Amino acid sequence: MTLIELKTRLPYNPKLKERTRELRRNTTGPEKRLWYWFFKEFQQTYNIRVLKQRPIWNFIVDFYIAKLKLVIEIDWESHFDEQWIEYDKERTSVLEWLWLKVIRFTNNEVMNNFDWVCKHILKEVFFIKE
User: To pair with 101 at 20 to 30 A between CA atoms, which of 27, 90, 91, 117?
Assistant: First the structure.
């Protein structure tokens, strides 16, 4: 696969198909909140498709907006462990190598600062600078 092909078609690991289905069926509270209270209306209002639990390479990302090459991750508290921090850095590097932008929120941010999370996503989508 050449770099030009990577720009138009992301690598997909078929071994992740079952795990992806399982994650879609067992969505976490913060993922549900973001999906039902923000992304559903966002898709209709702006006609921008959002995919949830999308396999990319050897990872499954929480949300993916292909039109914008934007990955949105919601991290559990376990992601603050040193091992997870390193894993997330490597994962982000690989996704950025694929020309994707990755933004992350914590469960706590989604559940307790929801308006801020939504505004932050909109700023990324519409390239708004502060």
Answer: 27
Encode pLDDT of 98-123 as tens digits.
999 999 999 999 999 999 999 999 99
> Would you say the pTM of this structure is higher than 0.85?
yes
Domains of the chain and any CATH numbers: 3-125 (3.40.960.10)
- On whether the CB atoms of residues 20 and 55 are closer than 8 A, the answer is yes
Rounded-to-integer distance, Cα 59 and Cα 47, Å: 26
Q: How many helices (H) and strands (E) does the chain have?
A: 7, 4
Would you list the DSSP string of 18-49? HHHHHHHHT--HHHHHHIIIIIHHHHHHH---
| Average pLDDT of the residues of the chain | 89
Alpha carbons 124 and 14: distance in angstroms, whole number = 30
User: pLDDT tens, 62-80?
Assistant: 999 999 999 999 987 655 6
